[in-house]
Amino acid sequence: MNHLPLIIKREYLTKVKNKSFIIMTFVSPLIMVALILVVAYLSQINSDKERQISILDETGVLDGIFENTEHTTYKILSDISLDSAKELVKSREDYGLLHIERDVNNNAIVSQVSFYSDDSPSLSILTSLERKIEKRLEDEKLKINGVDIGKIEASKTNIDISQETFSGEKTSKVDSYMKLAFGGAAGYLLFMFIIIYGNMIMRSVIEEKTSRIIEIIISSVKPIQLMLGKIIGTSLAGVTQFAIWVLLGGILITVLTAILGISMAELQTPQQDLMNQAMQNADIGNEMQLAMQSFFNLPLTNLVIAFMFFFIGGYLLYSSLYAAVGAAVDNETDTQQFMLPIIMPLVLAVYVGIFTVIEDPHGTVSTVFSFIPFTSPVVMLMRIPFGVPIWQQVLSFAILGGTFIFTVWFAAKIYRVGILMYGKKPSYKELYKWIKY
Amino acid sequence: MTDLLITDSVSKNFGNFRALNNVSIAVPKGSIFGLLGPNGAGKTTLIRIINQITMPDTGGVFLDGEPLRPEHIKNIGYLPEERGLYKSMKVGEQALYLAQLKGLSKQEAKQRLKYWFEKLEIGDWWNKKIQELSKGQAQKIQFIVTVLHRPKLLIFDEPFSGFDPINANLIKDEILQLRDEGATVIFSTHRMESVEELCDHIALIHKSNKVLDGKLTDIKKTYRTNTFEVGLQTDAIDQVTRDIKEKFEVLPATFKNLNDDVKLNIKLNGNYNSNELLSFLTSKAEVHHFVEVIPSANDIFIQTVKNN
To answer: What residues of A are in contact with residue B102 (Cβ under 8 Å)?
Structure first.
């Protein structure tokens, strides 16, 4: 008798109808969106604040580099001692005082630059000031050494080595970044999904034991059917929840930003600001064009199909491990000792993906790890944008699928024996013995 | 009468512990078969083997003459001792689910559930959650789910625990009725009075071995001690007692009676039969009470377990 559809249906419906599940499904996106909006709002307030910075420049070489912006105004002080300047700044309640000290020995132009303020100044302001001063001093020094700045500007170049395989496929460094971004996102998404929903499966497997219905169930269905049904049913509930989150989150963000008038573009952190400044030299328009081109250069069809297969495969494999843990214990507090061996290969996969695949996507290490079932979903997904032969993908997926069936069988085996021992926390040695029963 | 279920030299080890040692039982069709034994004797292991929850290491189990196969699950209804239901599921949904797992179609299951819910007067529970029911109420649901698919073989492990006397009686009557309709029942319990009431066959398992089995009446016959409970009324109590003690072996009696002057347990040693005892007694005093002491299931249980 095949009870699998029946079990899947029950697992799915009980999960989805569960009150806390429903609440979590609809409240989480609200909380997330609320958080994002609060952060956005706060950073807006923060950047809206007008700052006045006083500058006491003893050297005079820095004239003209401090241009007032929307939020920051610079007041140049002159013919005033440092101490009285401090007093003045304090009384005016300025944000701070930038003091540029002249080098008396005249070996360099500036001996020391200091910033005086009530509280520690913000990192982005300091960095921005430093950048301005560095730039001007560099130019000054070049001038002193008799170098023509115009010539230096003219000789700045931006090179993107165009790569081509012998079979004629073109690629480039920007392409590589694009591939990395895709692979990394896929791997990270899988990682998150496993962490969030793996526990749900484990709890679902423990459910029969805590409610003591296990013997009734197990005398009607094979444990492997029960395990499979639980894994699939719970996963479907997870997918449902995730889909609702994405949908609701998207709608909420769109609607709320429209209503509250918060521009997402202003959601930039100071770090992003710095990066943007650093990139200002490069030709941004050009980069964008390259990126778009790279995007369409990706093996998109292969990527999407492989993503679906490896995502599902990887998720199911790890769920079956969680199910095995659930089968081995009879309440949730006992699960801790078994968590580490599950998380470890997952973390390993992410590290291998980040450090090895980037360096050499088709090297021995990356290739081997893209076949080991516990790391293959993440590593293979990261490799595929760089072009992996279909036979390798198929083989890797076959290994993954086979391992999944094996772990479910294994979990069922533990489960069958586990019911005979209520209230006893098993050791690894006992687990080994159970398999032999 | 043929046997519905036969276990043939079934043994089962858990590591170094031998839970069952060559246990052979035969459960006749249409009987109520009491599976008895002290705690930890191996009863539950045997029941789990019959339900194919665990496999025997050696030996075979036959249902209706065929070696046990996974398909046989739908011919067996099992009410385990450790039992529960999904707490957050509604009564009706849950009963439907469990019935479908036993191979019933949804319509069929719904119909039969309706019948049983009305019969046990719990029709209005359909939309309640299990966690809203009391333990005894949940047991009723479990009982219904066990018998709903009309299995040939019903296995009840302590079916009355958690029931008040009224409901216990209700369930007892249902079990008897199911037997009359052709089901065979294996009944495992520690309550000897219900064994006495229900079982026609018993098997006693002790320390992983079967130590006794057969028809309850036959077993009782082999355990009879030819002892008679006697209640007499007379004015000369001492004289009569002395006379009896001269002729027969007398044991102290503990039965309760209204107003007998002499209460004795008299054991016949083969020199006399019960008629001779009775006529001797009538010649001495007025006989108010005369009954053979039949060993109770309880006595047999305790005696067998102690002797082994």
So the answer is: 220
